[in-house]
Amino acid sequence: MPEVLFPLDSTKKFTEQVLVGHNRWHPDIPAVATVRPGQSFRVDCREWFDGAIHNDDSADDVRDAPLPIVHALSGPFSVSGAEPGDLLVVDILDVGPIPQETGPLAGQGWGYTGIFPKQNGGGFLTDYFPDAYKAIWDFSGQQATSRHIPGVTFTGMIHPGLMGTAPSAALLAKWNQREGALRATDPDRVPPLSLPPLPDGAILGSLTGADFDRVAAEAARTAPPRENGGNQDIKNMTKGTRVFYPVYVPGANLSLGDLHFSQGDGEITFCGAIEMGGFIDLHVDVIKGGMTTYGVSENAIFLPGNVAPQYSQWLAFSGISVTTDGEQRYLDSQLAFQRACLHAIDYLTKFGYSPEQAYLILGAAPIEGRFSGVVDIPNSCATVYLPTAIFDVDVRPSAAGPTRIKPGASAPKSTF
Amino acid sequence: MPEVLFPLDSTKKFTEQVLVGHNRWHPDIPAVATVRPGQSFRVDCREWFDGAIHNDDSADDVRDAPLPIVHALSGPFSVSGAEPGDLLVVDILDVGPIPQETGPLAGQGWGYTGIFPKQNGGGFLTDYFPDAYKAIWDFSGQQATSRHIPGVTFTGMIHPGLMGTAPSAALLAKWNQREGALRATDPDRVPPLSLPPLPDGAILGSLTGADFDRVAAEAARTAPPRENGGNQDIKNMTKGTRVFYPVYVPGANLSLGDLHFSQGDGEITFCGAIEMGGFIDLHVDVIKGGMTTYGVSENAIFLPGNVAPQYSQWLAFSGISVTTDGEQRYLDSQLAFQRACLHAIDYLTKFGYSPEQAYLILGAAPIEGRFSGVVDIPNSCATVYLPTAIFDVDVRPSAAGPTRIKPGASAPKSTF
Amino acid sequence: MPEVLFPLDSTKKFTEQVLVGHNRWHPDIPAVATVRPGQSFRVDCREWFDGAIHNDDSADDVRDAPLPIVHALSGPFSVSGAEPGDLLVVDILDVGPIPQETGPLAGQGWGYTGIFPKQNGGGFLTDYFPDAYKAIWDFSGQQATSRHIPGVTFTGMIHPGLMGTAPSAALLAKWNQREGALRATDPDRVPPLSLPPLPDGAILGSLTGADFDRVAAEAARTAPPRENGGNQDIKNMTKGTRVFYPVYVPGANLSLGDLHFSQGDGEITFCGAIEMGGFIDLHVDVIKGGMTTYGVSENAIFLPGNVAPQYSQWLAFSGISVTTDGEQRYLDSQLAFQRACLHAIDYLTKFGYSPEQAYLILGAAPIEGRFSGVVDIPNSCATVYLPTAIFDVDVRPSAAGPTRIKPGASAPKSTF
Amino acid sequence: MPEVLFPLDSTKKFTEQVLVGHNRWHPDIPAVATVRPGQSFRVDCREWFDGAIHNDDSADDVRDAPLPIVHALSGPFSVSGAEPGDLLVVDILDVGPIPQETGPLAGQGWGYTGIFPKQNGGGFLTDYFPDAYKAIWDFSGQQATSRHIPGVTFTGMIHPGLMGTAPSAALLAKWNQREGALRATDPDRVPPLSLPPLPDGAILGSLTGADFDRVAAEAARTAPPRENGGNQDIKNMTKGTRVFYPVYVPGANLSLGDLHFSQGDGEITFCGAIEMGGFIDLHVDVIKGGMTTYGVSENAIFLPGNVAPQYSQWLAFSGISVTTDGEQRYLDSQLAFQRACLHAIDYLTKFGYSPEQAYLILGAAPIEGRFSGVVDIPNSCATVYLPTAIFDVDVRPSAAGPTRIKPGASAPKSTF
């Protein structure tokens, strides 16, 4: 096991640890450690809400989830010799849940998926699912099941939802400018068009005083993926993956977190993955001048690992860029994927799932979401693939009609 | 080999065959044959431009491609007993190129991929690639190579780009209404926002006279995918696939065409697949009342076959919903996928490919395009995966830098 | 489609064709055609018994199968420039059943699997299955089903069971010597220990007269695999495979045949594959001096294609090298694999299959047979893996007990 | 993490632990714990030689390896309610190396593969490799590399080499009888034909005194796989696998050990896997009367997990049942597999590996060993498949000839 450079004590808050991480992007957040190219090291990760979501049967904690404090990130790790213009090579050697006893922190043998309410985060289908719901998943080795969603078992593809290098001051400024400009077009929208810097709740490592205040006022929120990688939520970035990140600041300043036991493409319920804390073993290297050599000036490129669970039969749904109200949109894959997901949800209700349970399955299980035709005006076509083997019953269409799951279990909904 | 219900003579035009197909969607196009549930049959298919694109080194034919005549569709096939509300079950038993001698028709041992010019069809990246280009691919059994794109070989996933049932009159009216409404918002746009009915070039099976004129004036173009399936361009709909289509008219009236030897997710160069004529063996069945039973009132659902070529190493690129001009868009997966594709193209140029060659590879090779994060405001994240084994050289990033392909070959560009 | 260098007319016997192949190995059998390195060409293949086995419900044809006439091989093809010491590179571009109408010849939409009687060929488990049985399989595109074995459907992995280069005179003499020496140890055994040259039934291409008689007296039977490749029955040698054969005579003299629609590892019922006639498209090349360069002086090496059907769930059985009478043998993987297969057969009978049906399934379906421990004295361990998805019922063990298939169908048994 | 029912302290010998396991099979070895059907629990496992093999550059420890003390097994675990005639259902929830700091015990970040000398264990090719060699493998997350074998990296398929239920007294007697009878046919053979009970070195859990002596005199060695499962060395029995074992004694008395980080089919160097200590999480259940219901009276059946590393390109070698001296044997798959492995070894030496390095690779890497033709008298055909991606250089044959690995590293050989 490689040396633990960023340990977390599961009994303490994220801010009470020996080393304190961060939950904003800024070039001036100090590194917690320096590693050399070729070094392997272990990093503990806290689940993104730092313990605010509980292993119980109420969704009130999802309803009230403290978005200002996300994401609890481990790092930054400075890589000696890395300079702007280089590519940082990050190998995910291993990643898993907290390897200690069962406990109250997500990752301690369990994780959660939430449907976030429209008032607090929303999600891919928030217009159809405006309320808060939760599902708790129990881990049994590599597999997940939920007492809130009967008849589903799948193998986890554990991965960090969020990993990236620190932005330069110029890049950060660009983010704040362009996201602010978008927000200004409809400043009162719910959910908002983008999230401004938010000093409230900011955690900035060892920064204090005036430095803290300055950085907190400028630092970018961690929700969106950006040029530095960030919250890409790519389910295939699992064990054995090699990622190449652009380097924007001396030392690269790599940070990561938001571990998922499993996730469907899109992470569609916003907190669509199975969220957990855990550990990740990394190996880093540097390709000098790689950004120019390979034309990678922004957004990670990567070689996924070769150990994803294999499913050989899939049930696929398609959607096009027409709204549920019948309005035609122009080549809109975002909408087409929404429609494909809604079709899958409608379908699963015929087997006895509630719409919310079906939505939670799509968020958490290893579904594949693919771009199909994207050029045939005016309709984009998107497809979503469900592995049939994750269901206890046969979910394929047949003349005999659907077999219904055992009734009883339901996903908790928040009160108001 | 099942009985050939729709034969095509490769030496004759699509309109000069014993049975004439169609290139518009309309409920009143007469069926060319009636099949019973449980029946297997073979259908010949003509490449979508009916021979207008040639196996040569000029892209002028792509520049001038006769869009009004697409897609040359085989059918409709009426399925006895199928009624509106049923699901039509279509098994793709086999599909392949024209199994005769080498010749001048795409499918006769070769196929083509075109970058369509902005003035005539455009494509996913038409703002960056406004001119016409072409690549000819030669088939060697299951594999494709191109004299216009060196150093690339891949295994075909042969599939019909277009298959679907006839719309009802009401559904057709809805299409015309909504697509017209969109077009009306910017009627002079190039490329247009949608395509109106177009009597010019219409082929409507055995219809003649006043019936022909009436139907030609109403019938929908075949380019976009819609509720009836249609031009979905799903590369995984290959041999062994079972598709379930909604039935909107008595007999279902299944039509199909636009065979592809291979295609990347998205078919991004518009004519991004390797286009060809060929044959397809189908088996049909009916699930009575299946649209209600399974909640499938629109858009095909399907079980992909299990014989796709296996690639175990992929090089992936990511993109977010920020334009190349730096403008922030809100959760736009269409844009994010464009950016991911542009990143892949930039990358491949470092190995010696021209941007157009790289664009053509992404259209034709079995690349995977996936939705990654779609909920993290304001950025959607999309990813595109290239199988590394299709390249003769090692395309993975390394400290040694890229190995350049042999120079020389180039993709033909049209004159002006 | 490449040029057909060896055409077969399905309405005529193998010996009545324009070009006549052969059914023995000998360096002096003249080539039917000469091809150059880099050339692609099509070869028609006759099923191994040249039409003696019929699409009916009697196994008498299997009981009386004319073993002296096997295998009907297409070739030899001389490769210009190939010399002893080279490696012949053979790409299997495509392979499939006879692409014409349904008919009485195996390959014309159907194929067969036989359990050969102990008196006429025997098989892997002939001591347990001494009588003749037959199953007819119908092809539906890529898939096979049998009216004699209910509840099983699988995707074919079409491949040539037999392909190889001609032996040199010295190599042929070695074969005859060593196989004769083995036979001499128990000359009256049934089945025999090996098969001597047999002029009766020999087909030797264009040879006639004294040459025919001399070669017929010396030529080796084609049943066993040997240094030149030959009847290896490797189910993974399917489309996209590249094989490297040692060259023993000028021109290499490649021959092939014994096409299988599908086969389980081991081809355990002797005629365990689904036998058929068909076509194969080949591309050949030469690595000069490759036998020494790569240390490949005997037995083919190969790169399997990447389009095998994918199954992600398997039910596996194990066996050890103890006989059914309880006798301990020393590290005998042949016996261990027999025991594993017998365990699989016993198991399948609990679901309603007859032992013969189960045996036929193991021969014809894409089962995997693997060496497990081979070093732990005194027991070798072998394992056999059945893809669960080929069965209509769930064949996994459970507390509920096995679901029995619908009774009725049975595999025909020969009369006596 | 499930409760640890069998903990091991890495700083202490196997016999000095709080709970002591065993290294022989006997029905009277007392259970270390009782579990109930439906229970999950963790078991620590010691590497099979209990620390006798070191992380150094000498193979003397392999030469002198204390075979009488193998295998260090954890257990037995009694399952409440399990009775003879039942099937014990064992799910492998998780399995991995010792999850603590780096240290001197195999599993603490490293493992070993040995070629055992003919005088002390031997191996599959001991007639060709009579001396002792060793390779140390370092674990980097899921991947293994060796300072003794350059240019090879592969993903581990961690699995228990040995797992099984206790034999009944009658079954044990049968083992001793049949193995003794075999041994009696050539009692002085080196290596021996089988291993008799051996009180020297026996570890029998909590047994003492006369009970110890009686059991030690009767108990079976653990090297061979037998009816109860045992040392099957099945590389696919990894995470997610469900195994069904016959139950021969009340409580079933499950034991296990011999963890492997990786192994090739056959484990051909005897200690061919990468040996290590570690942990395994199990879930057990019982199918009452399952042995009769499913016809499984001996030898485990299992459903492999779905998370094995995926390799899509393989280089395969074939062999037939002719000895290297040219003697023809009758349908001997053991010999055919030896010849296939020897061909692979010869081939790899052309790339710069020593024969011993190649042999060690075949033992430790995830190679596949398959039965090909097993019925074509007199030759069995066996094939061995190497994933090409595990090598740093391209190991496919080409006209350019082999690329040699960097010289320097070698596998340590023992002194004499």
UniProtKB/TrEMBL annotation, chains A, B, C, D:
Specify the enzyme's EC class, one word. Answer: hydrolase
Q: Which GO terms describe its molecular function?
A: formamidase activity
List keywords of the entry alphabetically: Hydrolase
Q: Which InterPro entries match?
A: FmdA_AmdA, FormamaseFmdA
Question: What top-level branch of life does the organism fall under?
Answer: Bacteria
Which Enzyme Commission number(s) are listed?
Answer: 3.5.1.49
Key word Disulfide bond present in the record?
no
PANTHER family, A to Z? FORMAMIDASE C869.04-RELATED
User: Which NCBIfam families does its entry note?
Assistant: FormamaseFmdA
| Protein name (database record) | Formamidase
